């Protein structure tokens, strides 16, 4: 019985050494890991705390190191920190809140009530009507916010106008940009 176990362990060790040699020889890129991501698998969005994967095309990174928007498969992609706001709650969600009602309009002059689950606030580097695809849903930039900025590393903030948050506050996602 012990001999069988030793043979099995030696076989496993040999396989591991051979696998390592093949990886080193073929120069398969190292694993890429991300934390706190949402994945869409067969139409179902799933939260994953940690995920590691071998990139399919290591030369084609989702975004550049300094997060300058890049073209991938004819799509302009950038990293974005996602937040959400609901003006009906008042406070930082609404500039003018009178008698329990948000009477503010969005920065482009439109009523926020007509744009729930459609509009977002984006940094001023992006013109109004720029579209952002977040988890396959289109959000149109129609608002601004003092904290909705492009950070030093190039990551942008997007503030989604919704009562049902898509992801937890501050989640970083790759989003597609469609210029107006």
3D structure, described in words:
The chain is mainly β. The chain folds into two domains: 1-29; 57-178, no CATH class. Helix content is 14%, strand content 37%. It is built from one helix and eleven strands, in the order αβββββββββββ. Strands 4-10-7-9-8-11 form a six-stranded mixed beta barrel. β1 and β2 form a beta hairpin. The termini are far apart.
Instruction: Report the sheet-strand fraction.
Output: 35-45%
Radius of gyration: 23 Å
Pairing-aware structural class of the strands and helices? mainly beta
Order of helical and strand elements: HEEEEEEEEEEE
* Fraction of helical residues: 10-25%
Q: What is the oligomeric state here?
A: single chain
Major sheet: 6 strands, mixed, barrel
Lateral arrangement of strands in the main beta sheet: 4-10-7-9-8-11
Q: What is the strand tally?
A: 11
Low-confidence spans: 25-29, 54-64
Q: What is the average per-residue confidence, as pLDDT, rounded to a whole number?
A: 77
Straight-line N-to-C gap: 71 Å
The best one-word shape is elongated
Quick summary:
The protein is mainly beta and 180 residues long.
List keywords for this structure.
180 residues; mainly beta; 2 domains; 6-stranded mixed β-barrel; two-stranded antiparallel ribbon; 1 helix; 11 strands
């Amino acid at each position: 019985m012990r001999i069988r176990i030793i043979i099995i362990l030696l076989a496993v060790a040999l396989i591991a050494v051979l696998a390592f040699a093949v990886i080193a020889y073929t120069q398969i890129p190292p694993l890429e890991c991300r934390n706190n991501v949402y994945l869409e698998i067969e139409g179902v969005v799933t939260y994953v705390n940690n995920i590691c994967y071998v990139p399919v095309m290591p030369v084609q990174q989702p975004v550049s190191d300094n997060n300058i928007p890049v073209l991938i498969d004819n799509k302009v992609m950038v990293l974005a920190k996602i937040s959400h706001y609901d003006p009906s709650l008042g406070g930082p969600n609404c500039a003018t809140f009178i008698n329990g009602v948000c009477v503010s309009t969005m920065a482009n002059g439109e009523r926020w009530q007509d744009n729930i689950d459609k509009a977002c606030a984006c940094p001023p580097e992006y013109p109004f009507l720029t579209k952002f695809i977040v988890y396959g849903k289109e959000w149109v930039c129609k608002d601004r916010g003092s904290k909705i900025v492009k950070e030093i590393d190039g990551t942008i903030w997007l503030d989604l106008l919704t009562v049902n948050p898509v992801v937890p506050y501050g989640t970083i996602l790759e989003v597609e940009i469609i210029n107006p």
